[in-house]
Design brief:
108 residues, 4-stranded antiparallel beta sheet
Length: 108
């Protein structure tokens, strides 16, 4: 993400998009932050609530900002089970692969 006047030293950052907290957040410059999510961010969120928080490493002071943003993250299924065969008693396993699907289904 890009912005202005980000804290670049003496702070750690955390970032949530639509309630899904980033697993890693790196302040790369005073205008850029890089973040990643283990299970992706929810698809179909428009507008998404974005919460960026800076935590001072020496004093515990917290600075934060939140805003409504338009999030373009359409769900895209990249793989799924094929030739599925199930018994009458069940025991059927179906697999879907899509970025952000775990977070979307977990209500995050």
């Amino acid at each position: 993400m890009t912005g202005t006047n980000f804290f670049t030293s003496g702070y750690d950052a955390s970032l949530k998009v639509a309630g899904a907290e980033a697993s890693t957040v790196t302040i790369t410059s005073d205008t850029e932050i890089s973040a990643s999510w283990d299970h992706g961010i929810p698809a179909l969120v428009d507008p998404a609530a974005l919460n960026l928080t800076f935590h001072a490493t020496d004093s515990g002071l917290v600075h934060g900002a939140s805003s409504a943003v338009t999030l373009e993250n359409p769900i895209s299924v990249t793989d799924s089970s094929s030739d599925l065969s199930c018994s009458f008693a069940g025991g059927c396993s179906y697999q879907i692969t899509a970025n952000g699907l775990t977070t979307l289904l977990s209500g995050g």
